[in-house]
Design goal:
Layout (H helix, E strand, L loop, with lengths): L13 E2 L5 E5 L9 H12 L3 E5 L9 H7 L2 E6 L2 H5 L6 E4 L14 E7 L8 H11 E12 L4 H8 L2 H11 L22 H9 L2 E10 L8 H16 L8 E8 L2
Parallel strand pairs: 2-8, 3-4, 3-6, 4-5, 6-7
Antiparallel strand pairs: 1-2, 7-9, 8-9
């Protein structure tokens, strides 16, 4: 997705007051360029050694040199075995759909399970997060960046036929369709932070550590005036948050011992 620099004064960030839920602008979401620093921060803060990245494909978030240098046990996961064959040998590989189940030998193995822009494509959010819970060791972390309903581009993506939504996406965000294929988005459990969503994760045995909602998006970059209006709306929402109108979210949850 094309974004433009929209540095935001720290004072624009908003918190729900409980230290768990907060809100910010979309370019602060660490799901893209900031992903490596984000994950390394989680690893260092919580001393994670055994790590699983969901949907990493051929290009896991952390480089082979970082994995080797830190002596991490890092499993790259994807549903496409061909993609995983392209990954560096330093990575262990697991071909499988976490939404469909977990192998017995991987249960309670990981201290960190994370994903980037994957959760919106999961058909059954409850099963997906429940299976992640099984993969985590007691006290392990589940960390994710994902797009959410009900921002306009993602409502459109959810409602329109796949062929039509793919054409619209290519208009707003031109891409190499071979290298960056578009996958069906379901947005099950992909929502902005709210007490209701936190309760869902708690019911599965998680303690939500951090849940950040991000307002706005960069899809209107081709139309400067519309893009500026989108940024103005996003800033207003950061000041007075409406969780249902988030475009993206970042979630960190801990498996209760």
């Amino acid at each position: 997705m094309q974004t433009t620099s929209t540095a935001v004064p720290q004072s624009l960030s908003a918190s729900a007051g409980n230290g768990v839920i907060s809100f910010d602008l979309f370019d602060r979401c660490p799901g893209w360029d900031q992903a490596q620093d984000w994950i390394l921060g989680v690893i260092d803060r919580y001393q994670c050694r055994n790590i699983l990245e969901i949907g990493s494909g051929a290009n896991p978030t952390l480089s082979p040199s970082i994995i080797a240098g830190r002596r991490l046990r890092y499993v790259a996961n994807d549903v496409d075995p061909e993609e995983l064959t392209k990954a560096d040998p330093v990575f262990d590989r697991w071909v499988g759909d976490i939404g469909q189940g977990t192998p017995a030998h991987l249960k309670s193995r990981f201290e960190l399970v994370f994903s980037r822009m994957v959760n919106e494509h999961v058909a059954d959010g409850r099963a997906y997060h429940s299976n992640i819970h099984e993969l985590l060791a007691p006290g392990g972390l589940s960390a994710h960046c994902f797009s959410t309903l009900y921002s306009l581009p993602f409502v459109t993506n959810r409602l329109l036929p796949e062929r039509v939504s793919d054409s619209i996406l290519h208009l707003f965000d031109p891409r190499d369709r071979f290298k960056r294929a578009k996958f069906r988005a379901h947005y099950s459990w992909s929502r902005g932070p709210s007490r209701r969503m936190i309760s869902k994760f708690e019911a599965l045995g998680f303690e939500v550590v951090q849940y950040v909602g991000y307002f706005g998006h960069g899809y209107y970059w081709r139309w400067p005036m519309v893009h500026r209006l989108e940024l103005r709306k996003a800033r207003a929402l950061v000041a007075r948050p409406v969780p249902a109108l988030c475009s993206f979210a970042m979630l960190i949850a801990r498996k209760r011992p």
